[in-house]
């Protein structure tokens, strides 16, 4: 089949009709003009409008006038600039088809010979062969220069080791309210109550953000007869009070949507649902494991304490975690 | 009559009659059922408790039992306290209009006096949380917005949304918005734990901390919109929807315009 070649060129209105050309020119000018006015709006809003003026706009509600002026000014100045440029290109700029054939990639033989000659000549000129001191010190510095980036790879580590498996819960640690740091009596909790708690820190130990990221425990009190737990899990509760790690076993969000009526705990991130009566068994959602349960009891003063640390890692899975 | 029957085959006749019939049924039902809510002014009453008992027997006992002992569809009210009654009845959640998943906020059926009587009656059954007085609720003086914000993020934000706008729970249940809720009702909800909400007792979140929470919620209500339209303050859902539908729609439009040949 024969190549039909490019389609015949169709002239635009603006190419043949001077009136249409004039009109298109004016349209482009209006678009650019609007862009300029929008920029002026931005400058006016910034300089002359006080930052505490509000105006009511239907649908959007009460809006800050200055911020609105800045936003609208900036977006419209960019939008109209773009629209004007496109309109200009489509209506007025030359649009005849031009064919530009590819040239050969290889340079011509003269150019290649010239390059080799130049390099050789320059090398002889600077006497690199005879200045061995400079050559060696340059090699030394460039070699060392390459080392630091390799050394900095050390920052990918060190491995967290035991940090992922341990929390600040130890045998005998009191549960304290967060915020407030008040110890909690078992009798403080009514049936249906929840409390977010943290481990009591030894005197003058500051609580770090990394502690708050893994220590939170949710205390929930239900009627003791509602538990459907294995004997060892039941022994970890105290008088209807059960304690779970608040860190979701899926992705580490704070699990705290507690529905008092259904006794379900939900994670707000991915809707993993845990049944409190069955030891935070996963009944819906992507979580793979129940929330770790903290073994709690009361001390001689009646305050709630941990009887033992968590017997598994809290939070989401990681490579070395034993997922049993 | 003849003039009317001319229209009987009109296209709009069917829908029109349907609307008329629905309105008629609805009005009749409203008039008929409104009698239930009428205040028992005619009863001679010796005390608020007796009046409350009478209202209870008429309006509540069919579900909650003649002695507030509860039944298959409604919980026992013994020991829930005056605060619980004031919250549930004062916000119109009780009596429920239908047996839907969750009692929702609506115009209260009983007036303040009747609500107080009901509360007095239920409180007389067994001790329970009392209605906080105005003196207790001085959150402007006694609360701290910063502390309230911390408490809110720890305890409330998961269900009620980070800006107090409410959010979905499971199976059609939801945490209602906290915007425009009276401080008294926020306080009562905290101490009584209505419906799906857990109890936040005074020992674990002290009354002072509750006032801080209320102060924070009130400040969130009056938060100026410096960043433009709030789009409900419910996070990435509305923002994403707008970006995808409007933003990408606009980009597609421009792409189409770019590639069409100019005339």
Helices, strands, pairings?
The complex is a heterodimer of chains A (324) and B (263).
Chain A: H1 13-16, H2 18-48, E1 54-57, E2 61-64, H3 65-91, H4 109-126, H5 132-152, E3 175-177, E4 194-199, H6 209-212, E5 217-221, H7 231-235, E6 241-245, E7 257-259, E8 264-266, E9 273-275, E10 281-284, E11 293-294, E12 296-298, E13 304-306
Antiparallel strand pairs in A: 1-2, 3-4, 4-5, 5-6, 6-11, 7-8, 8-9, 9-10, 12-13
Helix pairs in contact in A: 2-3
Chain B: H1 2-5, H2 13-37, H3 48-59, H4 61-64, H5 81-90, H6 112-125, H7 139-142, H8 145-155, H9 157-160, E1 167-168, E2 174-175, H10 183-192, H11 207-221, H12 236-259
Antiparallel strand pairs in B: 1-2
Label the overall shape of chain A.
Answer: extended
SSE string of chain B: HHHHHHHHHEEHHH
For the CA atoms, what is the radius of gyration of chain A? 37 Å
CATH topology of the largest domain in chain B: Cytochrome Bc1 Complex, Chain D, domain 2
Tally of individual domains of chain B: 2
In the CATH hierarchy, what is the class of the domain at 165-306 in chain A? Mainly Beta
**Full CATH superfamily name of the domain at 165-306 in chain A:** Rieske [2Fe-2S] iron-sulphur domain
Give the CATH superfamily of the largest domain in chain B. Cytochrome c-like domain
Q: Which structural class fits the helix and strand makeup of chain A?
A: alpha+beta
Number of strands of chain B: 2
**Helical content band of chain B:** 40-55%
Specify the CATH class of the largest domain in chain B. Answer: Mainly Alpha
Span of the ends, CA to CA of chain B: 62 Å
């Amino acid at each position: 089949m024969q190549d039909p070649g490019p389609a015949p060129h169709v002239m635009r209105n603006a190419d043949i009709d001077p009136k249409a050309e004039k009109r298109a020119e004016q349209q482009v000018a209006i678009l650019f003009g609007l862009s300029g006015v929008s920029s002026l709006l931005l400058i006016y809003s910034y300089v002359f409008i006080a930052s505490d003026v509000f105006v009511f706009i239907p649908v959007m509600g009460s809006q800050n006038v200055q911020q609105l002026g800045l936003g609208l000014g900036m977006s419209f100045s960019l939008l109209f600039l773009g629209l004007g440029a496109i309109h200009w290109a489509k209506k007025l700029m030359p649009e005849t088809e031009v064919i530009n054939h590819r040239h050969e990639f290889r340079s011509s033989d003269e150019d290649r010979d010239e390059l080799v000659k130049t390099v050789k000549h320059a090398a002889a000129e600077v006497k690199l062969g005879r200045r061995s001191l400079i050559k060696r010190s340059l090699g030394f510095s460039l070699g060392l220069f390459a080392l630091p980036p390799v050394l900095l790879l050390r920052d990918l580590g060190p491995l967290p080791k035991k940090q992922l498996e341990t929390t600040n819960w130890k045998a005998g640690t009191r549960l304290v309210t967060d915020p407030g740091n008040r110890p909690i009596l078992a009798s403080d909790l009514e049936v249906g109550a929840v409390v977010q708690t943290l481990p009591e820190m030894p005197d003058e130990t500051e609580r770090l953000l990394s502690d708050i990221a893994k220590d939170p425990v949710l205390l929930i009190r239900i009627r003791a007869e509602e538990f459907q737990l294995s004997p060892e899990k039941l022994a970890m509760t105290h008088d209807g009070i059960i304690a779970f790690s608040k860190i979701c076993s899926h992705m580490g969000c704070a699990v705290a949507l507690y529905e008092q009526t259904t006794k379900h705990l939900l994670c707000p991130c991915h809707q993993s649902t845990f049944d409190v009566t069955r030891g935070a068994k996963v009944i819906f959602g992507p979580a793979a494991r129940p929330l770790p349960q903290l073994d709690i009891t009361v001390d001689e003063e009646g305050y709630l304490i941990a009887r033992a640390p968590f017997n598994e890692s809290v939070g989401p899975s990681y490579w070395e975690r034993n997922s049993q | 009559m003849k003039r009317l029957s001319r229209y009987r085959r009109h296209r709009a006749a069917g829908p029109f009659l349907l609307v008329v019939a629905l309105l008629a049924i609805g009005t009749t039902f409203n008039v008929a059922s409104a009698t239930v809510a009428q205040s028992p002014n005619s009863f001679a009453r010796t005390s608020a408790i007796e009046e409350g008992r009478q209202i209870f027997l008429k309006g509540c006992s069919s579900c909650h039992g003649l002695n507030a002992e509860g039944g298959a569809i409604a919980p026992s009210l013994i020991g829930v306290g005056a605060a619980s009654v004031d919250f549930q009845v004062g916000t119109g959640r009780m009596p429920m209009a239908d047996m839907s998943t969750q009692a929702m906020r609506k115009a209260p059926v009983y007036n303040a006096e009747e609500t107080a009587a009901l509360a007095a009656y239920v409180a007389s059954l067994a001790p329970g949380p009392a209605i906080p007085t105005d003196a207790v609720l001085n959150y402007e003086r006694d609360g701290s917005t910063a502390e309230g914000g911390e408490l809110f993020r720890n305890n409330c934000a998961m269900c009620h949304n980070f800006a107090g706008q409410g959010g979905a729970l499971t199976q059609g249940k939801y945490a209602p918005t906290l915007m425009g809720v009276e401080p008294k009702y926020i306080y009562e909800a905290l101490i009584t734990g209505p419906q799906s909400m857990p109890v936040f007792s005074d020992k674990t979140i002290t009354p002072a901390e509750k006032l801080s929470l209320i102060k924070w919620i009130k400040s969130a209500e009056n938060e100026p919109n410096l960043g433009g339209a709030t789009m409900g303050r419910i996070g990435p859902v509305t923002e994403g929807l707008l970006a995808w539908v409007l933003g990408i729609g606009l980009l597609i439009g421009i792409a189409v315009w770019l590639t069409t040949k100019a005339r």
